[in-house]
């Protein structure tokens, strides 16, 4: 009896006031720092993981504090009747003095000091310290109106009980406690919103979302809730395609296997793990304003944010995946990333690696690359064009275009490697339909001279090439600008144009502002007419821009080219004034049709055509 009384009398018990800074922090914690209340569970589990790591580290040199056969875990215990949620670990625990220092004083969790000692010791690379600020504990006050912490250090005979309502003071006392570790009990606030954190389904969902890859088992009613070792920390030689596929489908909610996956494990001055996936089909909302690019971000296996835009450039916005790094600077809540040099370095390195993987894929598995290209190639082309070509040198080797050589896809490098020794330009033709492109007079003219032509069938194609301007010191040139006339032939066409100047002027007067020039072109083969353009805006650009609201007024400067070797030219020379007007309009509309434009007035065109045909 006397020993019991004596023991009770020697137990410390005090009421203390929080530091002024800590009082302010508690207020910020509840009202400002964290965006979502649910973050508190991630923080408390992270702290529990830290405490367990510290125990294992100490046990390397102080072996008596931990039995090698002991299984360490983190336990979550909800109690709906008492309205409490308890998080328990069997980690290092704290002494009376450590509780005062770490819990009563802001940012004194000991994680920084411990990390420093870990650096000095240079032992056991498997240890991780998640906490950086020592403030995660206070996040529990967002959902609790009272918190009781009970803890015991292996270096103390007594346990410690800490109690606070978060209103400026706390009680701390020594207690009898035999088990090492820490137990934190939250008395949840009396509202339906916070009561949901007692729901097992809710708890499991939060653990899966934020703490699924904490390396210690997280137990809920004798069931392990979190996963085993994260896939990105698993050696590549232990993984099969099925492992990547299942992870992708379950994590990113796709019913199909990914088309491709990349697994990066970067060591050295910059260290991170990344697993990236290319879907087989674009996400349903990829081309909507609501779509947000970004990779999931983890630090030390703990989920930080879902869509980190800084990790992936806009032209790779279709890529899904995650990055996990151990040495990233976070802000106080760990919810929003500071714009750190580490993040920029990871993003830059990741971009290079993705491009390198695509280049290797193009070489080693052409069919798979083509499959990727046909789904997401336009993103690469827009990447070349955006920001005034800032990324063109990075992406130029990823570009593919159909070619007049067997109608197969070809890269620009492959085209250049096949060029004739005296060829200085890369020829291309623009149009929506491959079949029509192959039959265009100007395309046939280039092909018949023995040159290869790239077929640009998407709106972004020509923008990309014009942005690049050159590739391997070869300039890009549209077939509409190509002529193979000799000096003698040029002189002949010049004389013919002078002889027919009056005719050409009348046609220009008839068409007015529809065209900026009428000229003769004997290289049109069997075609009587062709449309080309002058200036920066090509015919295809006009069509593309006209589909964008606000750009309807952007027009190409059109040139009507007439074949002097075609029988219709004779008809023009001998036409009456009325017939010439109708013929001029008909030829212009024919040029529009050949280039894929809609007729300005179909009824008028048909009427004039019928008039000419009936004579």
TrEMBL record:
<dbReference type="GO" id="GO:0016887">
    <property type="term" value="F:ATP hydrolysis activity"/>
</dbReference>
<feature type="binding site">
    <location>
        <position position="102"/>
    </location>
    <ligand>
        <name>ATP</name>
    </ligand>
</feature>
<dbReference type="InterPro" id="IPR020575">
    <property type="entry name" value="Hsp90_N"/>
</dbReference>
<keyword id="KW-0175">Coiled coil</keyword>
<dbReference type="Pfam" id="PF00183">
    <property type="entry name" value="HSP90"/>
</dbReference>
<keyword id="KW-0346">Stress response</keyword>
<keyword id="KW-0547">Nucleotide-binding</keyword>
<dbReference type="InterPro" id="IPR020568">
    <property type="entry name" value="Ribosomal_Su5_D2-typ_SF"/>
</dbReference>
<keyword id="KW-0143">Chaperone</keyword>
<feature type="binding site">
    <location>
        <begin position="109"/>
        <end position="110"/>
    </location>
    <ligand>
        <name>ATP</name>
    </ligand>
</feature>
<dbReference type="GO" id="GO:0051082">
    <property type="term" value="F:unfolded protein binding"/>
</dbReference>
<feature type="region of interest" description="C">
    <location>
        <begin position="544"/>
        <end position="615"/>
    </location>
</feature>
<comment type="function">
    <text>Molecular chaperone. Has ATPase activity.</text>
</comment>
<feature type="binding site">
    <location>
        <position position="108"/>
    </location>
    <ligand>
        <name>ATP</name>
    </ligand>
</feature>
<feature type="binding site">
    <location>
        <position position="43"/>
    </location>
    <ligand>
        <name>ATP</name>
    </ligand>
</feature>
<feature type="binding site">
    <location>
        <position position="334"/>
    </location>
    <ligand>
        <name>ATP</name>
    </ligand>
</feature>
<feature type="binding site">
    <location>
        <position position="47"/>
    </location>
    <ligand>
        <name>ATP</name>
    </ligand>
</feature>
<dbReference type="InterPro" id="IPR036890">
    <property type="entry name" value="HATPase_C_sf"/>
</dbReference>
<dbReference type="InterPro" id="IPR019805">
    <property type="entry name" value="Heat_shock_protein_90_CS"/>
</dbReference>
<keyword id="KW-0067">ATP-binding</keyword>
<feature type="binding site">
    <location>
        <position position="94"/>
    </location>
    <ligand>
        <name>ATP</name>
    </ligand>
</feature>
<feature type="coiled-coil region">
    <location>
        <begin position="486"/>
        <end position="513"/>
    </location>
</feature>
<protein>
    <recommendedName>
        <fullName>Chaperone protein HtpG</fullName>
    </recommendedName>
</protein>
<dbReference type="InterPro" id="IPR001404">
    <property type="entry name" value="Hsp90_fam"/>
</dbReference>
<feature type="region of interest" description="A; substrate-binding">
    <location>
        <begin position="1"/>
        <end position="334"/>
    </location>
</feature>
<comment type="subunit">
    <text>Homodimer.</text>
</comment>
<dbReference type="GO" id="GO:0005737">
    <property type="term" value="C:cytoplasm"/>
</dbReference>
<dbReference type="GO" id="GO:0140662">
    <property type="term" value="F:ATP-dependent protein folding chaperone"/>
</dbReference>
<feature type="binding site">
    <location>
        <begin position="132"/>
        <end position="137"/>
    </location>
    <ligand>
        <name>ATP</name>
    </ligand>
</feature>
<feature type="binding site">
    <location>
        <position position="89"/>
    </location>
    <ligand>
        <name>ATP</name>
    </ligand>
</feature>
<keyword id="KW-0963">Cytoplasm</keyword>
<comment type="similarity">
    <text>Belongs to the heat shock protein 90 family.</text>
</comment>
<dbReference type="InterPro" id="IPR037196">
    <property type="entry name" value="HSP90_C"/>
</dbReference>
<feature type="binding site">
    <location>
        <position position="182"/>
    </location>
    <ligand>
        <name>ATP</name>
    </ligand>
</feature>
<dbReference type="GO" id="GO:0005524">
    <property type="term" value="F:ATP binding"/>
</dbReference>
<dbReference type="Pfam" id="PF13589">
    <property type="entry name" value="HATPase_c_3"/>
</dbReference>
């Amino acid at each position: 009896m006397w020993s019991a009384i004596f023991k009770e009398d020697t137990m410390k018990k005090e009421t203390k006031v929080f530091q002024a800074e800590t009082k302010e922090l508690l207020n910020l914690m509840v009202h400002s720092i964290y965006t979502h209340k649910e973050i508190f569970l991630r923080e408390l589990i992270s702290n529990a993981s830290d405490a367990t790591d510290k125990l294992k580290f100490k046990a390397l040199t102080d072996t008596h504090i931990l039995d090698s056969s002991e299984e360490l875990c983190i336990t979550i215990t909800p109690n709906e009747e008492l309205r409490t949620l308890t998080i328990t670990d069997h980690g290092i625990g704290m002494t009376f003095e450590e509780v005062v220092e770490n819990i009563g004083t802001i940012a004194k969790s000991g994680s920084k000091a411990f990390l420093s000692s870990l650096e000095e010791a240079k032992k056991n690379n498997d240890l991780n310290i998640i906490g950086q600020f020592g403030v995660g504990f206070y996040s529990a006050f967002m959902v609790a109106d009272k918190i009781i912490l009970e803890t015991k250090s292996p270096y103390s005979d007594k346990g410690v009980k800490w109690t606070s309502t978060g209103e400026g003071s706390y009680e701390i006392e020594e207690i009898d406690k035999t088990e090492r570790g820490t137990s934190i009990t939250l008395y949840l606030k009396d509202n339906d919103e916070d009561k949901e954190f007692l729901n097992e389904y809710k708890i499991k969902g939060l653990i899966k979302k934020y703490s699924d890859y904490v390396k210690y088992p997280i137990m809920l009613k004798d069931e392990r809730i979190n996963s085993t070792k994260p896939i990105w920390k698993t050696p590549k030689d232990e993984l099969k395609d099925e492992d990547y596929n299942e992870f992708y489908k379950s994590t990113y909610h796709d019913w199909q296997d990914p088309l491709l996956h990349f697994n990066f494990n970067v060591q050295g001055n910059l260290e991170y793990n990344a697993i990236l996936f290319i879907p087989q089909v674009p996400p349903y909302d990829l081309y909507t304003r609501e779509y947000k690019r970004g990779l999931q971000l983890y630090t030390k296996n703990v989920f930080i944010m879902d869509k980190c835009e800084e990790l992936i450039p806009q032209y790779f916005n279709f890529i899904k995946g995650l990055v996990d790094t151990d040495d990233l600077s976070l802000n106080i809540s760990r919810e929003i990333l500071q714009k750190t040099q580490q993040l920029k370095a990871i993003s830059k390195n990741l971009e290079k690696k993705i491009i390198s993987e695509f280049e290797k894929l193009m070489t080693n598995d052409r069919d798979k690359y083509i499959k990727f290209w046909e789904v997401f190639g336009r993103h690469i082309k827009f990447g070349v064009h955006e920001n005034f070509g800032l990324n063109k040198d990075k992406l130029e080797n990823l570009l593919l275009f159909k070619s007049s050589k067997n109608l197969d896809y070809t890269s620009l490098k492959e085209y250049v490697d096949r060029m004739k020794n005296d060829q200085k330009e890369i020829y291309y033709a623009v149009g929506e339909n491959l079949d029509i492109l192959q039959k265009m007079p100007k395309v046939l003219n280039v092909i018949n001279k023995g040159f290869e032509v790239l077929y640009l069938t998407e709106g972004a194609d020509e923008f990309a090439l014009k942005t690049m301007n050159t590739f391997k010191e070869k300039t890009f040139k549209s077939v509409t600008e190509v002529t193979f006339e000799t000096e003698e032939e040029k002189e002949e066409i010049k004389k013919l144009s002078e002889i027919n100047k009056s005719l050409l002027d009348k046609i220009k007067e008839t068409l007015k502002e529809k065209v900026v020039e009428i000229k003769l072109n004997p290289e049109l083969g069997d075609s009587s007419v062709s449309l080309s353009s002058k200036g920066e805006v090509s015919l295809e650009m006009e069509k593309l821009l006209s589909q964008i609201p606000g750009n309807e007024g952007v027009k190409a400067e059109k040139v009507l080219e007439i074949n002097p070797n075609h029988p219709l030219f004779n008809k023009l020379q001998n036409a009456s004034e009325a017939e010439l007007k109708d013929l001029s309009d008909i030829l212009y509309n024919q040029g529009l049709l050949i280039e894929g434009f809609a007729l300005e007035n179909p009824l008028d065109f048909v009427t004039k055509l019928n008039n000419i045909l009936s004579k």
